[in-house]
Amino acid sequence: MSELERVWAKSPEQGSGRGELLTEHLSLTRDALETVRTRLGRIPSAPERFWTWALLACLFHDPGKIPDGFQRMVGNPPPKQPWGRRHEIYSLGFIEHVLAQVSEEERIWVGLGALTHHRPLTGGERSIRKECTALLSPEQVQQHFGPINERAATELAVWLADQAGVAPPQGPLTAEQLAHDTYRLLHRVRDEWEDESPDDAAGMAAVLLQGAVTLADHVASAHSELLIDHPLPPDYPDMIRWSFLAQGRTLFSHQWKAEHVHGHTLLRAPTGRGKTEAGLLWAATQITDLTDDGRGLPRLFYTLPYLASINAMSTRLGEDLDDPRLERIGITHSRAAAFHMTHASCDEHDEPDGDHGEDRAGHSRKGTAQRRRASRAIAKANASRLYRELLRVTTPYPLLRGALGGTTHSATLLDAANSVFIFDELHAYDPQRLGMVLAMMRQWEQLGGRIGIISATIPEALEEAIGEVLEGTLHCVEPDDAHPWPVRHRLALREPHLTDPKSLQEIEQSLRSGKSVAVIANNVADASFLYEQLAPVARDLFGPDAALLLHARFKNQDRAEIERKLQGRYGAGACPRRPGLLVATQVVEVSLNVDFDLLHTSAATLEALIQRFGRTNRLGWLNEPAPVIVHHPHYAPRHNGPDEFADKVYPKAPTQLGWEILTRHDGRCLDERLFTHWLNEVYSSDWGSEWRAQVEDARKLFHDSFLTFLQPFDDNAELARAFDGMFNGIDGILEGDEAEYRRALSRAERTPGEQPGTGRLLASQLLIPLPDYARSCGRWAKDLDVLVIDATYDSEYGLRSMQRATDPRRPTYVPGELV
Fold it and tell me: Which CATH number fits domain 489-670: 3.40.50.300, 3.90.650.10, 3.30.70.120, 3.40.50.1000?
């Protein structure tokens, strides 16, 4: 056995007596990088030699693990002993020594990729700056990293030269020579990169290089895979035509137009008229265009604003693209693992959930089966986090984190290069988040991306904002005038509030007429009150399952069960249609593919109302337009300021403007083509000018704060905290669930071979989404890393009330202000 075959890169896995060899890990990382290059292809904004630098950086990222101290740290030989040195610094010596024939500029780029694949180069305690600055001479480098096996080092240098395709270095590699080479390249890299990047283009290239090395390293370390078989095939247009033909259908005009766009697009089309298929037809064309241009295998990101809508879209795409088990379609949001667990079923090795016996280890069989499903769900979610799939359904926020760069997020930015983005319901974002998305759209375009926006309701003000940030042409696609938009709804306005006795009486009459009725309130308090009044009527008429309440303040496990029942009873296309009652807040607006006979809703902004209308007579199958009845809201200030909001949720100005427009159409059937004109009227007002300014301010702030890449290797912990601070909200658990939450996390409950994080996933089923100010209402359990609240809760109504914390000056939960 050669000396090199005794050098490890990783500790042994449980049950194994040998760690992963250093040459094995370097080979795996190089191979992973080759797959990354295949998937990304030529990146427009990257230097011509980018992939060569990335390949060499992957090959040379870990030779610094050769010192005896590192080997003892990974248990070679046992027992493991701490070392406390950054191996990536010592890897520079092998780059300088083996690649001596390569230009110094290229060695600096390769060294930069290797040096920054674990820690920031500069900044706080997490950075390697302190260790780097302490190495003031080659002698100090040699003393710092300690003794090495010089025969193994020499063999490694020869092996690396062979892998890199360069002539092998002559003679043995000594510890003294390696320390000298490390010192020299380290100081050249620091001189070039420790302060600001040479220019913007170099800063971007550096972040992408860091992303390439960290991505390949993570894939190799996890022994994961990156798929190269796209679930959206080139012949998708032919597939959908044949599918439609079998159903006696043809493509809508806007679908045909979308397929033939080459570049960015904005698609307006009515709900239920194939927007999703149109978006996929457009995406298939862009993927073909980019592939033919040498830009790899483009990822397709289908983005939506709400987690529930992502879950529903993932299921739909799985069915439409012949991947019902979602093996090739990824989901990337904060609760992706919970979605996979909900949809998992026992495999042949699981015991049925109904078996309450014990296994040999003393665990309940039901609990063991749950943990197995949770472990598989964690594995799927982790694979998506490692960018496994070429098609991913997501919110924009995981993609926005690419702007943070660094060892954690640079791979996200890299993976977005040469990608295709579909933004569904972009109008749903508030000005701050919309500005962030617009800033990233320009970044993604510069990285070779194509942007597609699809919606039934995009005002011209938003269209203009998108067009201004994109350098390429934004092609607008709409149905032909010859194809009328559907007339599915008849509008009726009511002055009494949705909770008024007169409104309750009218809703009850609708139920007694045998209708399926959706009642959508603006806040939780109103929704709970309405449900309490109306649910007994619906149950008396149609049975115990005929009434459901849905809002954002349910435990995750209870909300999943409510959504399952809701989809089962009121899913679009269900036949026969079943009567009953849903009371909900805005969470239902674009979250589920449901269909009701009649709608009662509190007035909100026009965008929100149009989405609510879309849950009624969704497919247009009713014999006549369905009534959509809008009730005047209460205007009142929130607890934290004087401005008034509709039911303490929606800003007063746009809600009032929308109400004034609706009054002109009261009693009429609604032509959905007019919706865009209505929105244009709102956005051309003084309020619209303020909205446009807020969006632009947010865009500029995000660009200036996150997208300049002037210091690409500085510790970005502060940036990350600033980013997270833009997204308010927190999850909490009930005091009564604390013991069960703790039990789920317990090591004693773990089963053999389960994925890390399985217990936390099971525990997450007890979490309740809360507003950010709820932090002051509970206590932080440090050992569990979760907020614990004293609250009234049940699985039917969700969170009813929250008790004040011990300090009476602290705020308490106000359900009337939450949606």
Answer: 3.40.50.300
